[in-house]
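User: quick one, fold this
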Amino acid sequence: MLGRLNHVAIAVPDLAKGAEVYRSTLGATVSAPQAEPEHGVTVVFVELPNTKIELLEPLGEASPIKSFLEKNPAGGIHHVCYEVADILAARDRLTRAGARVLGDGSPKIGAHGKPVLFLHPKDFCGTLVELEQA
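Assistant:
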C-alpha cells in the first residue's frame, strides 16, 4: 500500500529563517512560500534528490501548527508523508484495520495539489502520518 516517502514536515516558528538555514547553511534549493489556508499553514519545500523537507509555519490563530509550536517553541518534526496510489482505498483499508483518520475522513487538497489525509499519531508509533495520493 505505501509508496515512497514524499516528505518530512518540520514546524518552524519563522518560515523565512528556517528557509534561510536550509538555503545558506546546507546549500539547498528552497521553494517560494505557499499559503495553505485550508490547512492553517504556510509552507516551503526543500528539494532533495530522493524526497523533500516541508517547513511549516502557522497561518491564522486556529492553525494546528500554532499549538504544536506552543509545546515545541524551537520547532521540530511534525509529520511524515507517504504516497499511496489510491487514497480512498488506503483510507478504507486503514479504517477496517482500526486506524483513525483525522477530520471527517474525506481527503483535502494538499500543498502539491493532490488529495491528502492525516492518520492519528497514537495508531502509528506516536507519529502523525500524512497520506498523499501519488
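User: anything notable?
Assistant: Strands lie at 2-11, 29-30, 34-36, 41-47, 52-58, 76-84, 108-109, 115-119, 129-133.
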